[in-house]
Each structure stands twice: as C-alpha cells, then as structure tokens.
Amino acid sequence: MNDLKMLMTSVWQHLIEKDDRTVVRDERHEANGKVAAFANAPHARLTMSASHTRNLGNFNSLKIEIGVDLPVMVDGIDKAQAVAAKWLQNTLENEFKKKGWP
Fold it and tell me: Where are the chain's structural domains?
C-alpha cells in the first residue's frame, strides 16, 4: 500500500524599486502550501528563481524576482525543472506586461 504524506511547497515574488541609490519600495509576497506525495517514494526539493531588472531612466530601476520551491520525485527532476523554468519565464514576463512594459 502506498501511504501519502504532505510535503511543503512555496512560491514567492520580490519587487525592489530604486530611485538613484535609495530603495523606495521593497515588497516580498509568499504563498505556502502542501502537496500530497507517496511516503515510500524518493523525493528531492527543486528550488528555482528568476529575476529581471528594468532601467526606468533617471537612475530609477525596478527588479522583479520570482521563485518556486517544490518537492519532486527523484526520477522526475529534469521534467519538473523544465516545467518550473517555463512557468518562471511566463510569470516574469506577465509581471512586466502588467506594468505596461514589453
């Protein structure tokens, strides 16, 4: 019988806005959750993040970093990494589109 256990997962977003050398906004948002996994299967943790800094002109900039921390099956690390990388790329692009930047 395959018993289930709950494993922690999280997703985060960090925004840093600078004016010259002064940080004018520093926000971090995080969501935590749990996912079910088979207790007798080998697991690993996959943590990935992506960031992009946009020059806003006049020494102003905005940096957006997003990340994900997931439990994955050991034999599925490569597939999980590819899926996470695509999700990170899409999410980062969407955050900049929300701000009206291409």
Answer: 4-98
